Amino acid sequence: MEPVTTPSIQIRNTTVKELDSVSLNCSSNDTEISIHWLFNGQSLELTDRMKLSLDNRTLSIDPVKREDSGKYQCEVSNPVSSERSDPIQLDIIVLVTTPSVQVSTTTVKELDSVSLTCSSNDTGISIHWLFNGQSLGLTNRTKLSLDNSTLIIDLVRREDAGEYQCEVSNPVSSERSDPIQLAILALLPKPSITSNNSNPMEGEDSVAFTCEPETENTSYLWRRNGQSLSEGDRLKLSEGNRTLTLLSVVRNDTGDYECETRNPVSTSRSDPFTLNITYGPDDPIISPSNTYFRSRRNLSLSCQAASNPPALYSWFVNGELLSSSQELFIQNITTNNSGSYTCFIYNSVTGLNKTIVKNIEVLEPVTKPSILVSNTTVKELDSVSLNCSSNDTGISIHWLFNGQSLELTDRMKLSLDNSILSIDPVKREDSGKYQCEVSNPVSSDRSDPILLDIIADPTQGSSGLSGGAIAGIVVGSVAGVTLIAALAYFLCF
């Protein structure tokens, strides 16, 4: 059998418009051959748009698409040889898609520059620009990039405002972009704020701010202390936001207000307008909160109340004016300084006032108590009473055992005023050191410890075991000795 000769591909046109059809014919002088098709050097995978003749000589593609572009070959073979044709490059010319015009902003400040870019996914195209539907005539202020894709306009003027389009084309088609409307705007002047009331009273007045001047095609924004404001229950904005109204002002409305004007190409902000809300005084607080104070110490009281402007303060002690300041200071107080302390607060702008009264009691520090007991050595199962003796009045009494707070058992009782601790009957675990502590709201002191010694009851035995238990131990011991002796006997004999 002869080897096969090199085949060739016959085609009417290697450049085909997308969606048309094409046929490729594998030409060979050999007989009894097999024919196989390749695409870009790989075995061709047929799609639903491709068909082969019965002998595989003719490959038809209908319709062609851009992905069909590439190198086609046919391979002929017989049982002893095979040969491939030279590749045929098939180019699919694609219909151009609709381009779009990209621009950073469609509103441009006069005398600035602007760039418009024609964006297209197509290659091998020509680009042409239009203005208001007509071919764009270039001026000394307009420039085009080398491929015409970018249009630059320097020192824009009002006459440059209008609709811009780009048109892309190839040998078989053309498409225009949607128009882009370019607006040319002037700079905004610096705004200012006017107000109908710059010093309103909390809960009584409303305030209206107006942003001046009024300009066309302008949006208005409001800020307080740098934060953007929006309409709410007490905050109302006029149509267009040029007027801001605060209904029934509160102290939190205090601050610096600014209005900002905007158009698509410029922004301008007013100087701050400071709104001062008068309020108060609120309910005052006297600190510290203590009502009891120790004698021979200094007394320092402070009266606080939120108020704008700051309130005037006066102190009255038992009805007598003692000080006209926010702080009250009395050196080396005694029990004679006990009484009613009144702080009076007045706001001269709002005309409101508030009063708070604090009753103060000056106390002497407690003296050291002592414990009285008839006998510190007590026989077990007897009773004992310890009496906490103090010359002070209005005191609290607390008992301690071995330096710790005493935990009462069912054998212990305290008198109503806690001054007497009774233990009945005493047990040896009650032995230890007893103290009493006396206290008032400003001081406390402990007695010296009393050592209570509990003598065991002889009838209880030193071992603490009952007679029956001792007898049981004796009997058990005798039995153990007998058992050991018997065991020894059997082992030896």
TrEMBL record:
Give the PROSITE patterns listed for this entry: IG_LIKE
Which residue ranges traverse the bilayer? 469-492
What organism is recorded for this protein? Microtus ochrogaster
Q: Does the keyword Transmembrane apply?
A: yes
Q: Which PANTHER family match?
A: CARCINOEMBRYONIC ANTIGEN-RELATED CELL ADHESION MOLECULE 5-RELATED, CARCINOEMBRYONIC ANTIGEN-RELATED CELL ADHESION MOLECULE 8
Q: Give the protein's recorded name.
A: Carcinoembryonic antigen-related cell adhesion molecule 1-like
Limits of the Ig-like domain? 3-91, 99-183, 189-276, 281-357, 369-453
Give the Pfam families listed for this entry: Ig_2 (PF13895), Ig_3 (PF13927)
- What keywords is this UniProt entry annotated with? Disulfide bond, Glycoprotein, Immunoglobulin domain, Membrane, Signal, Transmembrane, Transmembrane helix
What InterPro entries does the entry give? Ig-like_dom (IPR007110), Ig-like_dom_sf (IPR036179), Ig-like_fold (IPR013783), Ig_sub (IPR003599), Ig_sub2 (IPR003598), Ig_V-set (IPR013106), IgSF_CEA-related (IPR052598)
Among SMART domains, the record links this protein to: IG, IGc2, IGv
* Signal sequence bounds: none
